[in-house]
Amino acid sequence: MHKKDRRNFLKNTALATIGLSSTTAIAKGKALQDNPPDCVPTTLDYFGEGPFYSDNPPALIDNKVQGTDVGGEPLIISGRIFDLSCNKYIPNATIDVWHANPSGDYDNRGFNFRGVTNSNEQGFYLFETLKPGKYLNGSQFRPAHIHFKITPPGFNTLTTQLYFEGDEDIPSDAAASIDSGDFDASQRIIPLQKNAANQLEGTWDIVINGEGLPVGINDLHIDKGMIYELLPTPFSNQLTIKYGVFKKAKVSISVFNIIGKRVSELTSATMAPGKYEAFWEVPDTLTKGHYFVSLSINDLQVHYLKAIKQ
Ligand SMILES: [Fe+2]
């Protein structure tokens, strides 16, 4: 495993859990207890904002980056924004993204593949776009990347870039290959996985100076419990949530919509350690789109997974 912060490790574990025995996941979760959380601030990119930023980009509509009708690989990026302690999440941070189209060109006249979104009331963000193509920087292709300007309310903007694991142009790129110091890019190279709808998905949490709201002693206590799997994904009329509780505790499962409003609380009870399933009869009135299923143990959110309603 690459050098990664604890949270990325947890995310990867969560993704890797699908198809693996839950014992493996539990063992990994327990092993983590002995390690102090490694909370790594998100770094600047060595190339800064680059030459292709356009002022006053539009707000994203339905979390979609404009320009996604041209063909290419659908890509969903999501994550949560934390303050520098990683014990607080930051709602309403501005997230300004821009990138090349699937052919490797920037739209420098209009706003295709440019837009602004915000972290929601729970500190989560999400946007849909197409995987950026590559463009030449001198005689060398830059690895595929997405530019970000992240601004927590009342705090400074962090300008950086996000890369994708396995890109063969990373080692030769002057920015993406840096693996230590102020411009360390190693926390900004994320794995992408195809979901059931054949879209690439990647998770990237951002750790930044800002004013946050407490999420508890630590955020993702998978030593207390975790969600193993959501079935099916995408879902329509019914969603099954497979989860584990590792200590006797008050347990609740909730579903939040993209703006962070709770749309359902499925379970709320004191439960013994074990593996459980929750079933959600999805109301017909629920709008299509992205949702977060969250597991709370003793009122502390310990884990979440995303699900798409189709
Ligand atoms: Fe770029």
Record keyword descriptors for this entry.
21 strands; 310 residues; Immunoglobulin-like; 2 helices; Protocatechuate 3,4-Dioxygenase, subunit A; single chain; five-stranded mixed sheet; mainly beta
What order do the helices and strands come in, and which of them pair?
Elements: H1 6-17, H2 22-32, E1 74-82, E2 88-89, E3 94-98, E4 114-118, E5 124-130, E6 136-137, E7 140-141, E8 145-151, E9 158-164, E10 189-190, E11 193-194, E12 200-203, E13 206-207, E14 213-214, E15 225-231, E16 238-245, E17 249-257, E18 262-271, E19 274-281, E20 289-297, E21 300-309
Parallel strand pairs: 1-12, 1-13, 9-10
Antiparallel strand pairs: 1-5, 2-14, 3-4, 3-8, 6-7, 8-9, 11-12, 15-16, 16-19, 17-18, 17-20, 20-21
Helix pairs in contact: 1-2
Fe (ii) ion binds near residues 50, 52, 145 and 147.
Protein architecture, described:
The chain starts with 5 loop residues before the first helix and ends with a strand. It has 2 domains: about 40-215, Protocatechuate 3,4-Dioxygenase, subunit A, CATH 2.60.130.10; about 225-310, Macroglobulin (MG2) domain (Immunoglobulin-like, Sandwich). By secondary structure, the protein is mainly beta. The relative contact order is 0.18. The strands form 6 sheets. Strands 1, 5, 11, 12 and 13 form a 5-stranded mixed sheet that branches. A 5-stranded mixed sheet has the order 4-3-8-9-10, with no helix packed on it. Strand 11 and strand 12 form a beta hairpin. It has helices spanning about 5-15, 20-30; strands at about 75-80, 90, 95-100, 115-120, 125-130, 135, 140, 145-150, 160-165, 190, 195, 200-205, 205, 215, 225-230, 240-245, 250-255, 260-270, 275-280, 290-295, 300-310. It binds fe (ii) ion. Fe (ii) ion (FE2) binds near residues 50, 52, 145 and 147.
